[in-house]
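RECORD TYPE: inverse folding
INPUT: structure tokens
STRUCTURE:
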């Protein structure tokens, strides 16, 4: 098996990658680091049973999991707050 010619510039590497070429043997993974910037954190909420029932009614209509719906709503609210506060 012949070894691929290394890309001489980042632009060449990007072009080869964008063209669908397998570039995995051009990358030195021995120094790769995995970063998990969106590490999940578990939280517990105590909320009224009537609110849970209302959430369940909505989630059943749209066919999603309760946790997923709450995550979407929280994300939307946080993004809205960030936009209005400029953070």
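DESIGNED SEQUENCE:
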């Amino acid at each position: 098996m012949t070894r691929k010619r290394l890309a001489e510039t980042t632009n060449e590497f990007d072009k080869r990658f964008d063209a669908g070429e397998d570039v995995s043997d051009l990358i030195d993974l021995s120094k790769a680091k995995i970063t998990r910037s969106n590490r999940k954190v578990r939280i517990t909420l105590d909320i009224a049973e009537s609110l849970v029932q209302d959430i369940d009614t909505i989630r059943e209509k749209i066919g999603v999991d309760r946790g997923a719906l709450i995550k979407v709503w929280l994300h939307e609210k946080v993004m809205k707050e960030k936009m209005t506060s400029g953070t």
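NOTES: The domain at 41-87 is CATH 1.10.1220 (Arc Repressor Mutant).
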